[in-house]
Design a protein that fits this description.
By secondary structure, this protein is α/β, with parallel strands linked by helices. It contains eleven helices and 14 strands. The protein has two domains: 128 residues, Aspartate Aminotransferase, domain 1; 216 residues, Aspartate Aminotransferase, domain 2. The chain has a seven-stranded mixed beta sheet with strand order 4-10-9-8-7-5-6, with helices on both faces. It has a three-stranded antiparallel beta sheet with strand order 11-12-14.
């Protein structure tokens, strides 16, 4: 099996055995609460390790406070808490939402929900402004210059709040968080377990909680924490953050092998909007072969890729690539490879040959 769908979910590292309730007053509960606190510190430290930006020969390395880390069930809940939590906290004055139409569904859906109910306006009016942007595009791997976007936005509007969906960038790409107020991370995108994630909420940013109950997670996310999974996520993130440079170089070599499919096949299009693209994601169109057909054909050969975000796989709406301006032909023939430090160069070489022969065969069949 060759698994090149790591942008959808990654294999899990580690398996700690902690199942006690951190809100319980007995010794085991206190032990769990300490483990949760340590995990919160580890996640803040991982963010700090990837939060570096040089300007005027001076390195800025702002370290998020561990109390500002809120654990959730994953990226989708974190994005909803960031967007709807902020909009609801500003209901009296209204919120102007600024975003791009090619963002992940977990950004677009809560924005649409808020607009439909009259709580906010899209790129329009409102005393409060929330800018929501992905660090790395989930379809193409294009990297947004978050430091520049946040800095320029704050120059024009010092009171604007910047929310970054870091699901595809966390512990994979360096980022400047200096002017960022809210940052989403997802456990299963960086080799933590599914069902874990979180939101960094900079001190001073007020959110209205979406879940109510026992008041866990600083009263922003009620519900008993899954301590074992959170600890596992924190350990995985720490490992990824520590090795961010080495991992980056390794997956870049894998991506280069897969990109060379352009050299052996005609009518191949690499789909991205800039020259600054993450090596973890490669979106390619093999014209004349529908992406859905190719995904299934490769699956039968033990190579697992996708047509893009798993959250979009059951929808019949216009694709993210089309919203970005790519033609329907390119969008319909696109597949997404997404890599992990645990993928090997040998897997890439093997996949290269299988994919090339599969596309040649499919094109011949389709022509007939």
């Amino acid at each position: 099996m060759i698994y090149f769908d790591n942008a959808a979910t990654t294999a899990t590292i580690g398996s700690p055995q902690i199942f006690h309730n951190p809100s319980s007053p007995h010794a085991l509960g206190i032990k769990a609460e300490r483990a949760l606190r340590d995990a919160r510190k580890a996640m803040a430290a991982s963010l700090a390790m990837t939060n570096k930006h040089s300007t005027a020969n001076k390195t800025i390395n702002t370290c998020p406070e561990f109390e500002e880390i809120i654990f959730t069930s994953g990226g989708t809940e974190s994005n909803n808490l960031a967007i709807l939590g902020y909009v609801l906290s500003k209901q009296r004055c209204g919120t102007k939402l600024i975003y791009s139409s090619d963002e992940h569904p977990s950004i677009l859906a809560p924005i649409r929900f808020a607009i439909e109910r009259g709580w906010a306006s899209a790129n329009g009016t409102g005393e409060a402004s929330l800018v929501s942007v992905s660090h790395v595009n989930h379809e193409t791997g294009d990297i947004n210059d978050i430091g520049r976007i946040a800095s320029e936005t704050k120059k024009n509007n010092p009171f604007a709040v910047i929310h970054v969906d870091g699901a595809q960038g966390f512990c994979k790409e360096l980022i400047c968080l200096q002017d960022v107020d809210l940052y989403t991370f997802s456990g299963h995108k960086c080799h933590g377990p599914v069902g874990t994630g979180g939101l960094w909420v900079k001190k001073g940013i007020r959110l209205t909680p979406l879940l109510h109950g026992g008041g866990q997670e600083g009263k922003l996310r009620s519900g008993t924490e899954n301590v074992a999974a959170i600890v596992q996520m924190a350990e995985a993130a720490h490992t990824m953050a520590q090795n961010i440079s080495a991992n980056h170089m390794h997956v870049a070599k894998i991506k280069a092998i897969m990109q060379s499919l352009r050299d052996v096949l005609p009518d191949v299009h690499e789909n991205c909007l800039s020259s600054d693209v993450s090596p973890y994601i490669l979106n390619m169109s093999f014209l004349g072969v529908k992406g859905e057909i190719l995904v299934h054909a490769l699956s039968e050969k033990g190579i697992f890729v996708s047509m893009g975000a798993a959250c979009n796989s059951r929808k019949r709406t216009q694709s993210s690539l089309e919203l970005m301006g790519f033609t329907p032909e390119i969008a319909q023939s696109a597949i997404r490879f997404s890599f992990s430090p645990f993928n090997t160069l040998a897997e890439a070489e093997q996949s290269h040959g299988i994919i090339a022969s599969t596309i040649k065969r499919l094109r011949e069949v389709i022509r007939k």
